[in-house]
């Protein structure tokens, strides 16, 4: 049992803090700090990242060891002074990783997802994607390259990652004396704001002095307006992840000459043509046939998120003991459910096809585990009959989406 993964407990801890923050927001009479749709969307993105991370984390760690064993520049010993040097070095690397994430299109495509949320609370901290984690790992390799031992680096990254969770909240207000040294929730809130004077400020994660040193520091003055300058008006799980890559591709296609094409990929997001996104949305999200109205299926959605979280917790804890079929099933089932949650928020008509896909996936997995795969025709036939004779699709839409007309 030595291979159990205790990171599974980060999930209940996360929900505990979200719940405490929610209660605090209610007590402060600030219910607007949370918005149902945005919380569901933020948590969905976080679940996907934690899920995919299980498959890639080991290779990230191996990469640190590989870099350290083959290319370490200095031989840095492991004593308490080194921990201080490492925490500073980590935050310094983070500063540049984060700053380039805002200044270079191809990096912004991954980091933009973190900034979609117009609500600034603990759930927004969960908006990290695996693509972002891959880019970040490339930057983190600088630490073992400098000669910090990978075990220390990995420990530090966990601490560093945990710190930034707590800077995503509005319930604590400004703590001015802390701002001399640390990035506080107020300072990171400025980073998440779309107000002109707050743009491209406060890239630090733990310490404030990199921003002061490189001229990107800004204290909170007026109350920030959170989110992007050009907000993404979609809760689609896939579109949120990939829209900016499509924008880059379109901008690249339109660009004439090498210099313009280079800029489309490596130029500044500030110069991205703002007409591209609405055009792409028209093309890719055209089947948005329903206007957003009062959500009538909050319970159903909450159940799905709870189900995904429980599955993910169990999956994380016993990851080393799962066989390939368990892995493929859990990965696909959770990802389909998250796409489903996004589609529910957008009230898409095609959503019941996804529900069919999930039911079939679940039945195939159960049959496979019992060596009865050849009986897959039974659930397929049942679904067919339900659709043909009981109009399951229409009933589903009528009940979940309230679209009976
Ligand atoms: Zn950022
Ligand atoms: Zn943030």
TrEMBL record:
Ranges of residues in domain Fatty acid hydroxylase: 83-216
Record GO terms (molecular function): glyceryl-ether monooxygenase activity; iron ion binding
Recorded topology in the membrane: Multi-pass membrane protein
Subcellular location per the Swiss-Prot or TrEMBL entry: Endomembrane system
BP terms from Gene Ontology: lipid biosynthetic process; membrane lipid metabolic process
Superkingdom of origin organism: Bacteria
InterPro entries: Fatty_acid_hydroxylase, Sterol_desaturase/TMEM195
Keyword Coiled coil: no
Transmembrane segments: 6-22, 51-68, 80-97, 300-322, 328-345, 374-392
Keyword annotations from UniProtKB, A to Z: Lipid metabolism, Membrane, Oxidoreductase, Transmembrane, Transmembrane helix
Cellular-component GO terms for this entry: endomembrane system; membrane
Cross-referenced PANTHER family: ALKYLGLYCEROL MONOOXYGENASE, STEROL DESATURASE-RELATED PROTEIN
Protein name listed in UniProt: Sterol desaturase
């Amino acid at each position: 049992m030595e291979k159990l993964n205790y990171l599974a407990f980060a999930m209940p801890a996360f929900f505990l803090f979200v719940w405490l923050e929610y209660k605090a927001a209610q007590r402060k009479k600030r219910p607007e700090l949370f918005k149902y749709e945005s919380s569901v969307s933020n948590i969905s993105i976080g679940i996907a990242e934690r899920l995919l991370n299980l498959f890639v984390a080991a290779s990230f760690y191996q990469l640190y060891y590989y870099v350290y064993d083959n290319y370490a520049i200095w031989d840095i010993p492991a004593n308490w002074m080194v921990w201080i040097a490492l925490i500073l070095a980590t935050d310094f690397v983070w500063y540049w990783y984060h700053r380039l994430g805002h200044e270079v299109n191809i990096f912004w495509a991954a980091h933009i997802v973190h900034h979609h949320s117009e609500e600034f609370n603990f759930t927004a901290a969960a908006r990290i994607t695996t693509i972002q984690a891959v880019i970040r790992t490339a930057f983190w390799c600088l630490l073992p390259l400098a000669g910090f031992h990978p075990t220390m680096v990995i420990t530090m990254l966990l601490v560093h990652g945990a710190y930034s969770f707590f800077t995503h909240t509005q319930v604590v207000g400004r703590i001015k004396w802390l701002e001399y040294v640390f990035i506080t929730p107020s300072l990171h809130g400025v980073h998440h704001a779309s107000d002109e004077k707050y743009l491209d400020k406060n890239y630090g994660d733990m310490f404030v002095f990199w921003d002061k040193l490189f001229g990107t520091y800004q204290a909170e003055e007026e109350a920030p307006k959170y989110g992007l300058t050009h907000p993404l008006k979609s809760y689609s799980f896939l579109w949120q992840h990939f829209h900016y890559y499509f924008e880059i591709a379109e901008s690249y296609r339109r660009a004439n000459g090498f210099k313009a094409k280079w800029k489309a990929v490596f130029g500044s997001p500030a110069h991205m043509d703002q007409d591209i996104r609405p055009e792409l949305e028209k093309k890719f999200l055209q089947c948005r046939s329903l206007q957003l109205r009062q959500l009538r299926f909050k319970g159903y959605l909450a159940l799905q998120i709870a189900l995904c979280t429980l599955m993910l917790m169990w999956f994380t804890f016993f990851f080393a003991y799962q066989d390939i079929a368990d892995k493929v099933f859990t990965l696909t089932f959770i990802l389909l459910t998250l796409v489903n949650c996004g589609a529910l928020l957008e009230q898409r008509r095609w959503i019941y096809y996804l529900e069919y896909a999930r039911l079939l996936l679940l039945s195939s997995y159960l049959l496979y585990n019992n060596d009865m795969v050849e009986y897959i025709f039974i659930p397929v036939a049942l679904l067919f009959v339900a659709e043909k004779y009981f109009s399951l699709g229409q009933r589903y839409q009528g009940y979940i989406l309230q679209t009976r007309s």
